[in-house]
Protein: Alpha-L-glutamate ligase
Organism: Amazonocrinis nigriterrae CENA67
Amino acid sequence: MLTNIRLLLEACKHLNIEFKCLHTNDNLVRVVINQKPYYFTNFSTPFLPQSISQIFKDKDYTYHLFKDKVNVPKTKAFLSPFCEDKYKIYLEHQDIDSILEAIQKTFVLPVIIKRNSGSSGTNVFLCQNIEQVRFSLEKIFDVNSKEYDYVALAQEYIDIVHEYRAIVFKNKLLLLYEKSKAEAQFIGNLSPLHWEGAKAIHITETRVVSAIENFIKPIFPDFPIDYAGFDIALDKNGKYWLIEINSHPNFDIFIRDNNERIIVEMFKTILQNLS
């Protein structure tokens, strides 16, 4: 049984809420509240429509949707010159050299190059020079790789001092933790919690929580958030940035470094707000 499901069921038990595991691996669960069924599977919840989940998975869509609401690093998407024929009507650049030229015109190095879809920091590169940009694009566009993506993003580099994960449910911040690499060692993955020795630090300090709440608040009037994990960075100048949004946050690393009762209490809050 996956961590998210296990802790959800603990919350159900505390609240005497009816639930049933519907698969032999116990990772497909029906929870019944006021005679209404809610289905949870693996790391996914029933709270997000498929279209909204797809927006969050597509970092280019996320950028265009929120760039006028909050600070988001400048981002430009590039379709692979090697894409399938059905996508070629969207093709602006016929080869990697043309993409490199566009990146040099749009961004100041260093620049982040990443695949448009994906998670866990895979195929995310910090590029100090144009040859590193070329290498990154070739890796992302490698059709023989399991990490292949037909869209690559170039993204403005942010000098990050602190990076946070904020769990939001129905426009409310329920959980905040820092992805701390203060005493960690880089081992090839830029995602902070994939550094060796990195820690997920539960943040309860009112000043920081309020600052994050105020930062994301402009999103909600036009785009209510039923459930998501916001990755938010604070740069060296004290400015907050929305890096990306995760539609199905995983709590494995958090409970490795913190008491799992924190997540159980979070799920209890969620379930109580469904009744």
